[in-house]
Amino acid sequence: MNTYSITGMNCSACSSHIEQLVRKIPGVTSCEVSLVTGSMVVEGNASSEKIISAVTELGYGISSSKDRGDQDFLLKLTPDLRASVLKFIFSLVLLACLVYIATGHMMFHLPLGSFLAGSPDRIAYAELILASVIILINGDIILRGYRGLVRMMPTMDTLVAMGVSAAYLYSANRIALLNTLLSLGMHNEAVQILPDLFFESSAMLIEIVTFGKILEKKAQGNTTNALKKLLKIAPKTAHRLDTMDIRPSSSAGTNQHTEDINADELQINDIFIVLPGEYIPADATVLEGVSSVNESGITGESMPREVAEGDSVIGATVNIDGLIKCRTTRTGADTVFGQMIQTVKKALTTKAPIARIADRVSAWFVHGVLILALITFTVWYFMLNKSLSEALEYAMAVLLVSCPCALGLATPMAVTVGSGKALNNGILFKDASALENIGRIKYAAMDKTGTVTAGTPEVTSITSVSDISTKHILHLAGILECFSNHPLARAVTAKSGITPPDTYGLMDEKMTELIKSVFMDSASSGILSIRDFSEVSGGGVQALINNHRVYFGKLDFIKEKVAVSQDISATCGEMAR
Asked: Which of 110, 258, 351, 395 is 20–30 Å from 96 (CA)?
């Protein structure tokens, strides 16, 4: 399977023409072109040279994108609109002048100035010049339209090009008649020609189409926001151990030299360290150290996973509280995170069944509109004996009202936007057909209820095994846990309402006499002093509160510090289950 990047496509008819042409190349078994992402996936044994040559002859740009990275993929989906917006604004100013000259003096009797007032030929030439400049600025649409017509593969741009050209050429022809009347001294008759000029219509049409294309590209760029957010969590750097200094150590990273490199430079079997709070740069096996890893972004599990020597860790997950040394097992696109990115990209580039139907309809849509416009002109001009300008106006309306084709543009855009919205909510689709099929689901059965959560643990209950109330237990726990970044610590802190600034010189009016008698002495003046805070990886936290050592953490961690009765152990075990 080979992937190519296609430029110059503007509607589903473009993608359909490319697909039809490439499928005819010997050796090609399947071809799929995505209008939204500008990519083409070809399967078969046909040479890349033949495929590139065929697409180039159609007038589209094509390049092989086998090695295109994620950032390049995003750039492709997020086009630079600055040049298009500048052209649009400049053309809009000229269009305002054109409309003022063409209709302002007739409809609203606005002044034209001494140079134009009373001179129908000057008015006509001013309209001609302004319309010509606007069309030249946006001439790429006209060129693409006629290129498709010459190759007998008309697109939406063909409809625009024919409508603009018909209005422009007809108006230019009317200027010739206007000059003839003026040369004969028929000034009033020449003035009557001015309303038949369609320069402002041709210029306004191409300006509206240009604005529509800007909106389409803007919407296309917005669909990548979710993918951008996903790529932001990808680790940027890794602390790789010097290959000449990989030796056993009692503490991971102690007395060992590291070099900071780009995460994508890691190779299999490279050894790196991960500091607390950092993202793990690649899939790896833990060699030394004990820590907790937050994998909620990858697995959906809200509870952190304890890891130690011999355990595997996943890239793009967060090392919470311990320093660990790891050996790389998978890198780049082979990692779990890399496969997630590839899944998202595939969902953005594949087509849903409804999109294939839309492509088939769009492939014949332009031909149908051209035939219908010709029939309209014939009926009004030859059968109803209307004037040439009136018949041409109706034929133009048929061409222009069909631009752009909503079916061909909205369908692939809806699939792309849907995939992006799903990703924002933590849902990945392997392909676009799954996105379409899910709309028919009536019931869903979940066999892993623990992962269908908000991804954030919460405190649900508190049990006291002493004379201290649960309210004050929570208060003390919050004071300790507010210094930790562990997900469970943040849950306790959120429940208690304590924040780190509250713990410095805290005049604790909420504490009962029992708490005060334990944690405060006469010299403290009611001030709660917190010192020597430390966090034990995989265990818990501890600190001195007014010279009293307080521990908070797992049962095994607490048992190492104080005696715990069997009844209390049983209560903890039941709550853990």
From this structure: 395
